[in-house]
Fold this protein.
Amino acid sequence: MLLGAPGSGKGTQGERLARRLDVPHISSGDLLRAEVRDGTALGTTARGYLDSGRLVPDDLVFDLVLPAVLAAAEAGGYLLDGFPRSVAQAVRADQLLTRSGAELQRVVFLSADDDLLAGRLLERAAAAGRSDDTAEVIADRLRVFERETRPLVEHYRARGMLREVAADQPVEEVTEAVLRAL
Ligand code: B4P
């Protein structure tokens, strides 16, 4: 599982690593954005959370992500990106995945400082225009990361599952560092 702040390279590395490891890349953010794009009921509810940078309610995220994880685990493995995103999600995911023999094996924390993260997201905003890549929402997403997601670093470290990789390197070098860490 890839753990990191917005802009740390989860999505970028998730795609590259899934190819190298030959497992599906399961990104909670991508799955949520697809629901919004398709105009489903789940997407309609999720949209406001995504646009404001808040975490989408746990039940919606579990309904969407868990079936994909279980199917991938059955077929040989998975690379998770962006899920779990809080200690509550991690505890619940851990119970459900262990019950199905699909538990997480390693967590890679992509670490970088806030200025670098905000800079990358603003660059993406200029290029791609994702609805949550505005200066105000980026600041909120970084705050949500500190409050909700950073505690997962200690959560997984205490379980001996965490590997930390510096995310402030060129994309190719981060990929190689993650593979070495795994
Ligand atoms: P995510 O889709 O996870 O978005 P993100 O945290 O911003 O990271 P992303 O993967 O897109 O960006 P990356 O760092 O790769 O979440 C979006 C929203 O979905 C959340 O705010 C929340 O509302 C909701 N959500 C998702 N999961 C949830 C959950 N489990 N529970 C509740 N809500 C959930 O890349 C950013 C930019 O940096 C890119 O432009 C890239 O090109 C660049 N970059 C990456 N690596 C680089 C490098 N090494 N050098 C230079 N540039 C680099």
User: Anything to note?
Assistant: The chain has one domain: 2-181. Residues 6-12, 27-29, 32, 49-50, 53-56, 61, 82-83, 85, 89, 120-121, 124, 132, 141, 170-171, 174 surround BIS(adenosine)-5'-tetraphosphate (CB under 6 Å). The mean pLDDT is 95. Residues 2-181 form a domain with the Rossmann fold fold (CATH 3.40.50.300).
